[in-house]
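Bit of a strange request maybe. I'm writing a small parser for structure token strings and I need a real example to test against, not something I typed by hand. Could someone generate the tokens for this chain?
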Amino acid sequence: MLPELNYYARMARGYWQFLRAPLLADPLGALRRQLENRAAIFLDLARRAIFAQPGNPYLQMFRLAGCGYEDLAGAVRKNGLEATIEVLRRDGIYLTNGEFKATQPIVRSGRHIPSTETSFANPLVGGFFEYRSSGSRRGSGGHCRAACHRVGQSPAPPPDALGAAALRLGRRAS
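Reply from user aminoacidic:
Good idea to test on real output. This should exercise your parser:
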């Protein structure tokens, strides 16, 4: 009974936070700023969610590739985010869909990297709304959503309103 009480208490708190979270006055501008600063955002996320988390499977991939945070940051500054991501992929720092879902083992350089379904949950995002997917392919799975997701409740912008062409995002924008 205690787990159920905790669940409903989290849901009530999450619902309250969700209702109180303001919608952005300029959601398009917020998205544009995120796109313009994606390299810095990527590096901050990598530092906090990968390199500061000893059990993160990505950290083990970075170590096997001989790449530390300073190496990553230097490569992004020197070569840009897109080029760096291509190099990381070639160096074995990637996941297949099966690896991400923990239906296939992660093996890099002949070494098995342990992971579970929850290994890739972002430790920086706390969720109060818990929901389950129907699991049409692999059974149901639990997920959390934080009040900050309310930002995405604005109407979709028109095609290329974010300036995807100007930011050279190519096929990623479609």
